[in-house]
Amino acid sequence: MKGKLFAFMATILTLSACKTADISQVPRADIREIVNSSDVTLVDVRIPEQYEAGTARGAVNIPLAEIQNNINSLKGKKVVVFCNMGIQADQAMEILKKNGVEAYDGTTWKNVKAIQDEKKFTK
Fold it and tell me: CA–CA separation, 94 vs 69, rounded Å?
């Protein structure tokens, strides 16, 4: 029994020693801070009809299908992308980051709007 316990403990120690990075040391962006930043560009990647039905304050509409064609206008900006459920926002993030744009995932337009409203009510 002691031998099995020792082997188990040795395995645990070996696995924990194989960490390649300490994720606690990786800085995480606070989406609340970014959404409320004065230099952020909020991008709603839904189709125009959805955008017109409701979006976050100050957001521009660049549908996912047009993101690639708008890379140059977004370069050098801090961009938060969002949609209805987060799926298109994830796809937009992939395209933007691959093209060197500083992009953050706001997930849904309701999430971004709630963050904006939270700041408005806490003042």
Answer: 14
The residues, ordered by sequence, that sit 6+ positions from 44 with a Cβ below 8 Å of its Cβ are 50, 51, 55, 56, 59, 60, 61, 62, 81, 82, 83, 109
Say which CATH number the domain at 59 has. Answer: 3.40.250.10
pLDDT tens by residue, 15-69: 333 333 333 333 456 999 999 999 999 999 999 999 999 999 999 999 999 999 9
Take residue 61 and report the two structure tokens written for it. 């509409």
Residue 24 lies in a domain: no
pLDDT band at 78 (very low <50, low <70, confident <90, very high): very high
Count of structural domains within the chain? 1
Confidence (pTM)? 0.75
